[in-house]
Amino acid sequence: MPSHPVSPLGNKTRVLLTSVFGPYAQDDEFGSRTINPMELYQNQVTRVQGVFSLRMFHRSFGLMLMQANMDAPCTLLDFPTRDRFIEVLRENDYDLVGISSIMTNIGKVAEMCRLIRQHLPQATIVVGGHIANFGGIENCVDADHIVKGDGVRWFRRYLGQDENAPVRHPVTNSGHGTRILGLKLPDKPGSTAAMLIPSVGCPVGCNFCSTSAMFGGKGKSINFYETGDELFEVMCRLESELKVSSFFVMDENFLFHRKRALRLLELMEAQGKSWSLYVFSSAKVIRSYSMEQLIGLGISWVWMGLEGKDSQYAKLSRIDTRELVRELRDHGIAVLGSSIIGLEEHRPDNLDEVIDYAVSHGTDFHQFMLYTPIPGTPLHAEHLAKGTLLDDAEISIPDIHGQCMFNFRHAHIPAGQEQHYLLEAFQRDFRVNGPSLARLAETSLKGWQRYKDHKNPRIRARYKGDVSTIRTVYAAAVWAMRKWYQEEPAMAARLDGLLKGFYAEFGWITRAVAAVVGRYLLRKMKAEEARLAKGWSYEPQTFFEKNAQALALERRREQPVQKPVAPLGKVVPTNAGPC
Which CATH class for the 176-368 domain? Predict the structure, then answer.
């Protein structure tokens, strides 16, 4: 087994970590695609909802975690343009450049490696992220090292640090640049949930899951924080530094680690923490908790795999997911359901039923993805063995992102028809269930009504903290949506009923605020509709951040050089060599 590479400079290695360059939401020669923007919701969840689509960006959290755990001077460049990336290379002498990417951006990674060789020929190039599982990646990009799995541990070993030291958690919000109804929301302290990363990988190990495959596969995961006590300490620090009371938990199946979750609940109760948690979880695991435990933990939002009707995944075995979604929403817990188009049993003659089943869940948000064998997953290995994967001449890697085309020959769905069914799923969910924002407002109202008078003061405090948004912002948004749909009787009636629910609960002040703010939102919505009609796209800002060691190095370089003072009558040479 080859030894792990080690930097001869140790913790003096000057490191640049970077995501791939933009712009992203456009078609270009490097693999960007208009259909594949750097926005999770617009890309995969609310993509057909127009002015109602939730628009926001998420940082490269893996890079941030690695930077937080380096003792070497490390700079993080997130969402650069190509020109900015070149500028950073030209103006700095980095010893190592690390690039993180998904597989669809392989063209960008190859170009970035070329640029590094051109401008920093002495630098070591490291490539990681999901792209590392791409077969033959070492022949596609000019990198010195391809890192699979845990980048924190890899870099600690490379820099000569203790690879088993406690993991330092980055301090950052979960999203930025949030925009909806044509209104960009302010990125002010406390307005956005903190990012919390307890674990990576998922022990459930679904056959299509690239994240599970990346960190060991079925039955395995990497826990950065093993206990509820460790996690509680991190959350208290995030609460203090970011002024937050909510956390987006970036963990594939957070509630699966039951002992850790229940210990966290004990500590929250003991310390009176009225936190909100937004989590990923499988249906079977959610059902293993009582509603009292979920509410006590502050579970406010769940991303849950529904996959498909009669799917054979164990995580859904004997679970009535429609009933589960109804129960969660009735208790004020918003649900983002995730369904797959193109499972083995899907055929043109049953896909209407498949889509109807997904839509009937009535989740607050719904993600639809094409069934895609990603390299490194058991599903990919299965198709490789069967010879059903499409070859390079039949596909374009930048188009294999789950929203465009299959990368295999489906047994029943003719090539080219998959995107038709995918779009129909999005559109039908939108037609039947309405804007996700209206659904979220409905769920939030239900939660307030059920728990505003709860016997536990900690739980009451959480809902009291949310109520100002519910009675003003959500009510105004529903007012504006009701006006928007005035020519569509069924949806207008539904929104009218929801709006009356807000009025009945909160009275004349909410009625007045909804009308005033709602008119303003309606104007913003019409302006946004016109902007979108012209082809407007949304791009993230660039971040350029240095850790403490990099800042210290920069300060030392900026200090003026002190020339030696010569005794009177003597000359001090400024050059060691001859003139």
Answer: alpha beta
